[in-house]
Amino acid sequence: MKTLTKEIWVNIPKRRAIISIHNEVERLVTESGVKDGFVLINAMHITASVFINDNESGLHHDYEVWLEKLAPEKPYSQYQHNGAEDNADAHLKRQVMGREVVVAITDGKMHLGTWEHIFYYEFDGNRKKRILVKIIGE
């Protein structure tokens, strides 16, 4: 059994953004030498998400609009969580988008659908955050 555990650090200079981490995860899968197994990718912060979907800017815009309707950032006073922080909406958005993804590895490559792409979605940025990548297999 082979394993590889790495962290990807990101610094999003604004409150919210979607960034591709696909190529970095692919590189780590290759580095691991695993030919058959799984890769777990998860946000290590309660106000961020890792998800898989189409790499298309219109869809990313649609996520922003949809999530803002579900959990609007302002007014901050609408949330009981807000007090010392103003990020209650970020916690709710993360809950909708999820914490992590698991992808099968087959023949040394991520086993994804044609348009599937891996992203990190930051909901409360302006500081360094980390993403865990854990690869296990033969």
Q: Would you write up a description of this structure?
A:
The protein has 138 residues and is α+β, with helices and mostly antiparallel strands. The protein has one domain (2-137): Sandwich (Jelly Rolls). 25% of the residues lie in helices and 38% in strands. The protein has three helices and eight strands. It has a five-stranded antiparallel beta sheet, covered by helices on one side. It is elongated, with a radius of gyration of 16 Å. The termini are close together. The model has no long low-confidence stretch (mean pLDDT 97).
Catalogue the unreliable spans.
none
Task: Please report which band the strand proportion falls in: under 5%, 5-15%, 15-25%, 25-35%, 35-45% or over 45%.
Answer: 35-45%
CATH homologous superfamily caption: YjbQ-like
Side by side, the strands of the main sheet go: 1-8-3-5-6
Question: Key terms for this structure?
Answer:
138 residues, alpha+beta, Jelly Rolls, 5-stranded antiparallel beta sheet, 3-stranded antiparallel beta sheet, 3 helices, 8 strands, elongated
Secondary-structure map:
Elements: E1 2-11, E2 17-20, H1 22-32, E3 36-43, E4 48-53, H2 57-70, H3 88-97, E5 100-106, E6 109-110, E7 117-122, E8 128-137
